[in-house]
Amino acid sequence: MLDIQILRNDLAGVAARLATRGFVLDTTKFEQLEGERKVIQTRTQELQAKRNSASKQIGIAKSKGEDVSAIMAEVANLGDELKQAEVQLGEVQIALQTMLEVLPNMPNESVPVGKSEADNVEVRKVGSVPKFDFAVKDHVSLGEGLGGLDFETAAKISGARFSLLKGGLARLHRALAQFMLDTHIDQHGYTETYVPYIVNSASMRGTGQLPKFEQDLFQVSFGGTSNKAAMVNVYADKFLGDGLVANDANIKVDVENWYLIPTAEVPVTNMVRDEIVPLEKLPMKFVAHTPCFRSEAGSAGRDTRGMIRQHQFDKVELVQMVHPDESYVALEQLLGHAETILQKLGLHYRVVKLCTGDIGFSAAMTYDIEVWLPAQNTYREISSCSNFEAFQARRMQARFRNAQGKPELLHTLNGSGLAVGRTLVAVLENYQQADGSVVIPEVLRPYMGGLEKLAG
RNA sequence: GGAGAGGUGGCAGAGUGGUCGAAUGUACCUGACUCGAAAUCAGGCGUGCGGUACUCCCGCACCGAGGGUUCGAAUCCCUCCCUCUCCGCCA
User: Which ipTM was obtained for this model?
Assistant: First the structure.
């Protein structure tokens, strides 16, 4: 969420910066709502002050045994007026909040301006494109040849966009995750975490998946029919008053739901939601290995072959909560931590800085790491490392106590370190041999019982 | 699933309709005493929002969450969430 103060003070500036990422800010609507808010809030608070002082006087008078009918008469008509003002205030505040919650973050000044993926800037290439003196196979053919990759059975069990691993491939998948975790814990100073895979809507709201991207998520029902929260816990009730119902067309109602995490970023980052952490606890660095669940609603027909784009995949996620002054240094470090994994695995990759038109909703700056896939003859995203500045922290009220002792929003970052499924794909394709076998990278062999090669 | 107890400021813990944003203790900060420290004494010490006003002023809101009753709610009523204890079931 953006700081409403910045919108008040420099609306045109915000609009200009959001425009670089292709977002049109409705400044007229904001100014109108903000104007209304100011009038209504001032009036409401005046009425509340009046009620408070009158009530206090009644209390004092009664304790002295004096007659209170005169003061009572004075506030007799206050009730209705106040209630009406409070309802109006609630409505305008919800409208403002609803507008704010769907505004994307402002890109950092140094993010290259561009419209799409095509305008992203390559930062560096590490390693070189591997040469093969035979016709390369893709990971699907390799995996099926090795007898460990079975999409048909996965489809029978679940449906499209699921995969099933067996034997050496399943173990290689596990080895990759273990190797990544161990590296980040032992060499990069991250604290290992095990977190819930089902989260509430407040957590999704905190990191920015809600309210705008609900269609990308899997929602979880409770006990088969209604989930417990659908028993309607409507936070807007206070403002809606008696006359309005929850599904009133103009008012967004927040019903408490459960969702499967689309990334460990959600549960891990939300650890600090509604917290004020001591200054000396920063930076906080956490790593988690979790499955991730995505509906892929908007990508029908894309990457349908293989395990590149699945409803369920594993990812090792790096998350940091840092002092605002440190977040860009931390981003470079976090990126380096992710790159280390690829380097140790001996995989060729490049780092790309996303342009304003391609960065995600919550991010102020993002680097993607793209690994070379020989069968596709191209680079594919295997990690995305972002600095969210205070965007998520403001939604979460995640703060630290600064040197002056005052609560201040901290900065959050995260990055894949790495996507396990795609790393498996990269290892299979890059380490394939002419006979269809796959050499196991040396760093993984300790996790594979010393095995050097997967062969059918 | 059954029965019971409870959710108040960093922590502990009072407060069952009225000058309560909230006693007291403790932790923490400042000052005094001291060569210094401890002890002691004095003072300070929640968060968010608004008023063109970050550290000065004023107001509003917040005692798990959301509703309700009332001139007035931490306190009474309703719903939900969470925690703890015992029993049952279960990996």
Answer: 0.86
